[in-house]
């Protein structure tokens, strides 16, 4: 668990870059810090691994105040992924991945096995890439090496600062998809920084929207969408609202409002399928779904009506 | 030894010396660069961490860089004496700026993303330095070392002025002797060394990343190896250490003659005339090549060794006077000749000492001497005519001109004016034949070699006999220029080997033969 408590930070001749910030991240959770550039996301992240010291407030990992630990020890147990990778240009891929285990003085064969395993998992065949220097890799490959390097010592916590930010849109999506599927990440507590709304909704268990060093709202995707705390949050999400709503609502969420007969024909979709995917499916084929032993027939109209009904209820009565 | 015909002959003949000088040169260059690296790299690292120090440190090393090299060497002598120590310190100071500055900029230039990642992964400051900053700054640091090396190959030629050896010995010897072969034998290897080292270091710089990490280890080893060259020539040694001027080194009537005639071979340093006497006094040198009547011989309590086999040409001083003046004023010659036989080498040395070293007024010194020799008479203030006396800017001439003025005015009804400070031999002699002066004191050796430019065979046949030289110039001047040599004054201002008085008497050395005997037993 990471706990950030009333943390503020300002730089010389400036207003606070981060202002009275508090949040908690549960073990295994992925918290996304989302906001326009300059709102203090990186500053927040860098305080957690003590690259910056807060002016006020405290940060705890578990129950331990990070001030009490040596910065080197703290950092060796936190994976850190940067937008511009920061790979060592004079180290090969294998050497780059081995840096932290070496600092932790693992024995040689263990380091090597671990690095090779990670390369396999991140689709960087060691035979081709182990002894190659970072400059010889594509942007996407470099970012995967950066991720492997952060994961090498299997740290319980991962801090990621716009990890896909430097990639072109197509590569970004494919690297992100690999990222989601990576078993290494299952049990990790992750704080991921991005200014990309879509990315935030796709990767975050919870999302923390920041502006001018303050938290505007923190919560699950549906809370931000359907119960925005203020105008800033509302406007921030407006551009992609439809797509975000469709993607964050699952069939089970709107089940009571689905007004379909139960004459099931076509494919049966899981109730965990989100509305966006369901719509895509319906374009090609007929489909239905079952939830709590109830079967419903789906089509575009039924789906959209249900979503509107859901939104109306939620905005009147709050989130359930 | 014959004069070599071509440049290659010279190189072949002097190959041993050339090799020694080249090794010394390389050694001097790299010892100083090595020290500059040992101090400059840590200094560069320090100022990259303490930004406040960067300005002052780079400023000071920058100022050092702008001090003219010969002046910097000059500053070193009072502090560190002569020889390799001051040379290395001066070279080190020159090498410092490029090394410090490039270390600093190299470290500053490391990608901040890489630094952020490295720190964020938990590298300690020390690991950060050794694993990230230094390896990544290495190409820039190497460029600095390269600059420092090339600068130092050039500046190290000046080390020859302060007895630290190197290719400057040939270069400055060649210049002093107007010997182009010798000059090139120093200058060409120096240029080649600069090109070679520059090329070698540029190769190191261009190695790829992986090897660049290894150069961090290889470089000090290479520097150390090249530095050790300086020690090699020092390993053989004679019992006494000599210091000769570049000019003396290359002359047949100098160091070469010492070898061929006396069989004397000393471990010899080449050194500038300006600091040679003091170095002997301070026991940095045991034997030096001086000028026998130089005031510093007395100032530093040195003794002149007798040239018992007569290799140094005679430079007896005597007044030279235009014949026309002697004819017009017959009383002039007897007045001037009174000085003949009164001043020997040690008296002239003493007089020079009082003028050059004690800074006494030359007129006063001249008068004091004449009084003590019983020759002084008050001026008669006669009106018969005016004699214009010339003198060269340096040395004995100044004092002698004053003595002649007093003799003329005391013993005749003539008056005299002095025109001292007439450049060199050529200027003062031209003034004489063009009727701008009437007389000046000259040396027989100069008359023979510079003014009459006697043919080599003639010189060889008479040079060992001072009387024959005097007769030759007397006859030649009278015939060619209608100028008369009067009687020699008595002292001989020639090359001389000299030692500290105390050491010479302890070792029972009074002549060059004694010295040769002592050195080779
Ligand atoms: N090292 C620094 N020195 C001075 N100002 C900084 C520094 N780092 C960040 N800032 C300022 O703090 C604010 C927040 O920056 P940052 O946390 O990098 O924003 P974000 O990562 O959200 O784009 C910005 O106004 C930025 O200019
Ligand atoms: Mg940022």
Automatic annotation (TrEMBL), chain A:
Transmembrane segments annotated in the record for this chain: none
One Pfam short name: ABC_tran
GO molecular function, one term: ATP binding
Gene3D superfamilies reported for this sequence: P-loop containing nucleotide triphosphate hydrolases
Keywords of this entry: ATP-binding, Nucleotide-binding, Transport
InterPro entries registered for this protein in UniProt: AAA+_ATPase (IPR003593), ABC_transporter-like_ATP-bd (IPR003439), ABC_transporter-like_CS (IPR017871), P-loop_NTPase (IPR027417)
Domain of life: Bacteria
Domain ABC transporter: from-to ranges: 2-237
Keyword Lyase: no
Family per similarity comment: Belongs to the ABC transporter superfamily.
Protein name: ATP-binding cassette domain-containing protein
Organism: Chitinophaga qingshengii
Organism taxonomic ancestry: Bacteria, Pseudomonadati, Bacteroidota, Chitinophagia, Chitinophagales
TrEMBL record, chain B:
Protein name, entry field: ABC transporter permease/substrate-binding protein
Domain ABC transmembrane type-1: 22-201
Chief location: membrane
Record keywords, A-Z: Membrane, Transmembrane, Transmembrane helix, Transport
Native organism taxonomy: Bacteria, Pseudomonadati, Bacteroidota, Chitinophagia, Chitinophagales
InterPro entries according to UniProt: ABC_Gly_betaine_transp_sub-bd, ABC_transp_perm/SBD, MetI-like, MetI-like_sf
Bilayer-spanning residue ranges: 27-47, 54-77, 83-100, 136-162, 182-202, 214-232
Protein family (similarity comment): Belongs to the binding-protein-dependent transport system permease family. In the N-terminal section; belongs to the binding-protein-dependent transport system permease family.
Species of origin: Chitinophaga qingshengii
Subcellular location: Cell membrane
Stretches of the chain forming a coiled coil according to its record: none
Topology of the protein relative to the lipid bilayer: Multi-pass membrane protein
Highest taxon, organism lineage: Bacteria
């Amino acid at each position: 668990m990471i706990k950030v408590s009333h943390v503020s930070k300002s730089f010389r001749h400036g207003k606070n870059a981060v202002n009275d910030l508090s949040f908690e991240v549960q073990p295994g959770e992925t918290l996304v810090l989302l906001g326009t550039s300059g709102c203090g996301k990186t500053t927040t992240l860098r305080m957690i691994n003590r690259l910056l010291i807060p002016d006020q407030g405290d940060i705890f990992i578990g129950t331990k105040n990070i001030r009490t630990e040596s910065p080197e020890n703290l950092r060796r147990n936190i994976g850190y992924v940067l937008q511009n990778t920061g790979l060592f240009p004079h180290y090969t891929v294998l050497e780059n991945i081995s840096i932290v285990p070496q600092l932790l003085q693992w024995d040689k064969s263990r380091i090597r096995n671990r690095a090779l395993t990670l390369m396999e998992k991140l689709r960087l065949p060691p035979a081709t890439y182990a002894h190659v220097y970072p400059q010889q890799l594509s942007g996407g490959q470099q970012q995967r090496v950066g991720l492997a390097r952060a994961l090498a010592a299997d740290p319980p916590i991962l801090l990621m600062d716009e990890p896909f930010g430097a990639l072109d849109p197509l590569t970004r999506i494919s690297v992100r998809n690999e990222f989601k599927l990576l078993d290494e990440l299952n049990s990790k507590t992750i704080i991921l920084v991005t200014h990309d709304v879509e990315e935030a909704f796709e990767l975050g268990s919870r999302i923390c929207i920041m502006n001018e060093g303050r938290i505007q709202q923190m919560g699950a995707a549906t809370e931000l969408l359907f119960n925005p705390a203020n105008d800033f949050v509302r406007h921030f999400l407006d551009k992609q609202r439809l797509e975000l709503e469709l993607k964050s609502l699952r069939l089970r969420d709107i089940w009571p409002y689905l007004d379909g007969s139960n004459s099931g024909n076509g494919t049966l979709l899981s109730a965990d399928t989100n509305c966006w995917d369901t719509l895509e499916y319906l374009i090609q084929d007929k489909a239905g779904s079952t939830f709590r032993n109830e079967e419903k027939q789906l089509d575009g109209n039924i789906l959209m009506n249900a979503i509107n009904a859901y939104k109306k209820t939620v905005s009147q009565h709050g989130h359930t | 030894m014959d004069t070599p015909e071509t440049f290659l002959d010279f190189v072949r003949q002097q190959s041993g010396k050339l090799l020694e000088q080249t090794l010394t040169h390389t050694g001097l260059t790299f010892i100083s660069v090595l020290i500059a690296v040992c101090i400059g790299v840590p200094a560069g690292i320090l100022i990259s961490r303490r930004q406040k120090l960067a300005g002052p440190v780079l400023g000071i090393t920058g100022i050092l860089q702008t001090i003219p090299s010969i002046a910097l060497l000059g500053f070193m002598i009072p502090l560190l004496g002569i020889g390799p120590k001051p040379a290395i310190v001066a070279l080190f100071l020159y090498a410092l700026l490029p090394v410090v500055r490039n270390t600093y900029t190299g470290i500053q230039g490391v990608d901040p993303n890489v630094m952020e990642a490295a720190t964020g992964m938990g590298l300690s400051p020390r690991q950060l330095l050794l694993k990230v900053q230094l390896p990544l700054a290495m190409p820039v640091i190497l460029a600095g070392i390269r600059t420092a090396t090339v600068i130092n190959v050039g500046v190290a030629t000046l080390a020859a002025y302060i007895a630290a050896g190197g290719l400057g010995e040939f270069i400055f010897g060649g210049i002093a002797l107007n010997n182009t072969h010798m000059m090139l034998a120093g200058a060409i290897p120096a240029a080649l060394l600069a090109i070679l080292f520059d090329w070698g270091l540029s190769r190191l710089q261009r190695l790829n990343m992986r090897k660049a990490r290894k150069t961090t280890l290889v470089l000090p080893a290479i520097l150390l190896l090249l530095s050790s060259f300086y020690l090699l020539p020092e390993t053989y040694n004679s019992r006494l250490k000599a210091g000769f001027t570049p000019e003396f080194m290359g002359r047949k009537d100098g160091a070469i003659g010492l070898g061929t005639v006396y069989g004397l071979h000393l471990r010899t340093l080449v050194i500038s005339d300006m600091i040679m006497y003091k170095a002997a006094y301070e026991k940095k040198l045991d034997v030096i090549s001086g000028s026998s009547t130089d005031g510093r011989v007395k100032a530093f309590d040195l003794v002149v060794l007798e040239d018992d086999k007569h290799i140094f040409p005679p430079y007896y001083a005597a007044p030279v006077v235009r014949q026309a003046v002697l004819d017009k004023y017959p009383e002039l010659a007897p007045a001037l000749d009174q000085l003949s036989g009164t001043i020997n080498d040690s008296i002239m040395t003493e007089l020079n000492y009082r003028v050059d070293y004690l800074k006494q007024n030359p007129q006063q010194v001249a008068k004091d001497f004449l009084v003590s020799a019983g020759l002084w008479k008050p001026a008669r203030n006669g009106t018969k005519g005016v004699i214009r006396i010339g003198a060269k800017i340096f040395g004995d001439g100044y004092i002698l001109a004053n003595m002649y003025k007093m003799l003329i005015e005391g013993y005749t009804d003539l008056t005299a004016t002095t025109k001292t400070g007439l450049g060199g031999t050529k200027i003062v002699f031209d003034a004489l034949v063009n009727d701008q002066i009437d007389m000046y004191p000259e040396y027989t050796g100069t008359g023979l070699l510079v003014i009459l430019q006697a043919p080599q065979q003639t010189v060889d046949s008479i040079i060992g006999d001072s009387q024959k030289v005097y007769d030759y110039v007397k006859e030649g001047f009278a015939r060619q220029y209608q100028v008369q040599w009067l009687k020699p004054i008595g002292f001989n201002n020639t090359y001389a080997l000299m030692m500290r008085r105390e050491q010479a008497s302890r070792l029972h050395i009074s002549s060059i033969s004694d010295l040769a005997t002592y050195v080779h037993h």
